[in-house]
Amino acid sequence: MGKLADLLRHPDEIIPMLGMAVAAQKAKRLPQDPSLKFCYDMLNKVSRSFAVVIQQLPERLRDAICVFYLVLRALDTVEDDMALDDKVKIPLLRCFHEKSRDRSWSMSCGYGHYVALMENYQLVTDVFLSLDHEYQRVIEDICKRMGNGMADFIPKEVKTVEEYNLYCHYVAGLVGVGLSQLFASSGLESKEFFRLDDTANEMGLFLQKTNIIRDYLEDIVEEPAPRMFWPKEIWGNYADRLDEFKEAENADRAVECLNHMIANALSHVGKCLEYMSKLKDPSIFAFCGIPQVMAIGTLEACFNNHAVFTGVVKMRRGETAKIMWFMRDHTDLCVLFRHYAKLIAAKAIAMKASDPHREEILEICSQIEETTTARIEADTTYHRRATLEDDAPLPLSTRVLFLIVSLMFGAYAFKLEAAQNIFGVLLQHQYSAVDYINMFIAIVLVLYSIISIVERLTAIRYD
Ligand code: MG
Q: Where are the domains of the chain?
């Protein structure tokens, strides 16, 4: 019922959601080869939206990125398995990159779908070994660096902001670095991507920090022991213990800390926009850009919102479908980033002037607005597109009314019994030339009004 109410409140999300459902269905079609079939099936199970964007990548890159993703998910399963003794876990993390060369290796570990991933790891190995050597080298190198970084952090807490950045670099920044190298190796992006480590790292940091902020509650209630990545250097300014934020009497301090964490995450946006402006291939662009927009959208939903400490805050499925439907190029990406930056700034303006992060957030948002506006205005074709769309669009309700009137006229023209009841006239069931003209006009009107409704539902605008 809640979903239906959501759709009625946001009718422009209906068509994107149908489009997403079709794309997700398409992503479920699996390859014949049993090892590849397992990998793509796993991908669908662990991340539906990721499976959709990955399917749209060119074939030569798709399998490599699918394997890259699964190898790192397996590594993360080892890191996250609290039942695994550190004496086993730490050395395993450090040598995990070697497992992708051992056709007999698998283990029981993790929970949910990850149990199957770990128990059938030979199938991932099988696909890994069939990849180009260059792709294998990149995946192995990143897995080695990430595993060692994770192992370093097993016995210690994330305390300083520097450690927070380093941990996020190991678990997410390196994914950005590895992906850039895969893009460059495929020849679909320029060789410059071999050298974009710093900006690629920030792409990962922005996503990882968003997840860490959003998952506060999920992580803090984790059994047998919570594993938190909020740095004490930040939260220590607002509480003595991180779990105090859950309690209602600490709501104000909790939200101040949350806004501090969000300001820290938003500081990466400039570099993320710079990285994405260099991408040329449209499918690689969508693959990188969609998660980034989802991240700023999630931060907008979390900003100044105490619900982060008491439940799950995330974007509506319709809203994410709309983003995937709308975003085609870098200008669209800038439109979306500007849209969310404006929403965050509007919330900040409404906040108490005494809030310690109000000014900082406003400053970051105005920088994002400035950068994105400059890029939107530099794209002359976009300006033309936007003006065309602005041409006084009729509201959806008027279009639906027009369809109803057209259908009634159709009923009359085709002499349906219902029309006789509505109009209170008895129509002769013999057709004259005028009747045929009426029928023709009715068909045109009904088709026109249906097209006009679809057009309105798909013409998505962001301010
Ligand atoms: Mg982990």
A: 27-156, 195-389, 396-462
